[in-house]
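Bumping my old thread because nobody answered last time. Still need a sequence for this structure:
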């Protein structure tokens, strides 16, 4: 089932998310719905708060980057099969020199900006079978994970922009929260005027 993606301005995107257990109700269905929703919106990651669930869960599918000519052949091979579920994730360490990458977000359509992040992370998480992992990620995969991880921490990529960039996009963000944006996927707008 395709779920509506929550737009910028909705309080759920700022909520402190809660850890879940393997007994979380209908977890398989939740994951299936999230993947279906993400693919429908042509995303590469989706966090539970973006579909109105304040829990520590996000999904990533980096396979669209498998054809990216800016990546090395080794990186292309890795990302072309990278699809994961992250439950109760914690970033333990971030390292390396920050690098800029142009990011966007399904909750903030039509806004793309360069965001600086460190290239290497060590992360502890559970997969969909509640098997615990501690893994190192780097490059574009680390970038996608960091973006989605921020969502479960109540952080949006726009929070990482300079004060000037924030001022430049302020009216765009206000319009998104009011539903004044063209999207071709289902969205829930917090401040949209109700039709009578």
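Sorry it took so long. Here it is:
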């Amino acid at each position: 089932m395709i779920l509506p993606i929550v737009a910028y301005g909705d309080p759920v995107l700022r909520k402190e998310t809660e850890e879940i257990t393997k007994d979380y109700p209908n977890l398989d269905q939740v994951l299936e719905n999230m993947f279906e929703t993400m693919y429908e919106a042509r995303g590469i990651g989706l966090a539970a708060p973006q579909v109105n669930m304040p829990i520590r869960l996000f999904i990533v599918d980096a396979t669209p980057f498998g054809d990216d000519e800016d990546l090395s052949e080794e990186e292309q091979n890795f990302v072309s099969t990278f699809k994961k579920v992250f439950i109760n994730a914690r970033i333990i360490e971030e390292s390396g020199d920050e690098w800029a990458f142009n990011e966007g977000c399904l909750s903030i359509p039509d806004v793309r900006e360069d965001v600086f992040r460190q290239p290497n992370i060590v992360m502890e998480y559970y997969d969909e079978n509640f098997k615990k992992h501690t893994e190192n990620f780097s490059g574009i995969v680390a970038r996608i994970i960091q973006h989605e991880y921020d969502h479960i921490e109540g952080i949006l990529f726009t929070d990482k922009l300079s004060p000037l960039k924030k001022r430049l996009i302020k009216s765009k963000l206000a319009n998104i929260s009011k539903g004044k944006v063209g999207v071709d996927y289902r969205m829930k707008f917090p401040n949209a005027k109700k039709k009578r």
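The chain has four helices and nine strands. Let me know if any region looks off to you.
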